[in-house]
Amino acid sequence: MDGLDLRLLGYVVAIAEEGSVSGAARRLHLTQPTLTRQLRELEQRLGVELFVREGRGVTPTAVGRVLVRRAATVLAGAEAALADVRLAAQGLTGRLTVTFAGSGINGPLGTALGRVRRELPRVDLRLEESFDDAEMSDGVREGRFDVAVQRLPARDTRLATAAWWREPLTLFLPAAHPLAHAAGPAPLTALGQIPLVLWPRAASPRSYDEIIALCHRAGVVPRIGAEGRSIQTLLALVAAGFGAAVLADSHRVLRRVGVAARPLADTETTLHLVWRAAESNPLVERFRTILAASEEPREE
After folding, report:
1. What are the Cα distances from residue 90, in Å, to 83, 84, 144, 287?
2. Which pLDDT score, from 0 to 100, does residue 3 have?
């Protein structure tokens, strides 16, 4: 079968299925002499007889039946490959790797990913959580991730970004602290009235710097009560009385016992979608379209 193209395999299958060269020629939109010549040249090339005449039709020889079976399999595989390519070109199949922060998955991203799974069942959706904004942006730029859903994307001309979801920053306080019992949003000056529980700067420099910048904006000197490397650890430290944590409001859904939440006045944080500016994967555009259609959050 070395060197046989799909066209010739299609001829063999059509002749076997139609039971005659004339019937196959009509099906293939060829003249009968042309198809007869193609069949004879193929038989000469292989050095075998593929069909024998029976009455007004033809039937495959034993060797011909082997070729027909294999040719049908090859043609079906080729058609399946073309179908996969068409689906991939429409962003309906393939692999998509998404990296995200906890503030996304605890907020709107979880629901949005469920919608992606329902609408793109053929897609191999791979998810990777990260606590480092710089690492997420770097991973997209380097091709390890297709999309990042993050709060603080890197400024890089090789990356494209779009604001997706906005919510307030919230002060998560020990439930027994006096600040926890006041009504309404907490003023920024509250950051100077209680020690802060932060990410280590080495683990998430942009998040750390964002909170310190809020303190400077409020005109207060931050006091660091403790550090933690996960949301669960930060909230556990808050519940234990080490201080307050500044996090995206969506983390309220974790409902940690011993922790009360108050939005920080005049603050907002945004989840961004980040992808390569020169991206050619149609799945990325499909993913962004689905997320863009997600329902807007309702403020409580």
Report:
1. 11, 10, 22, 11
2. 55
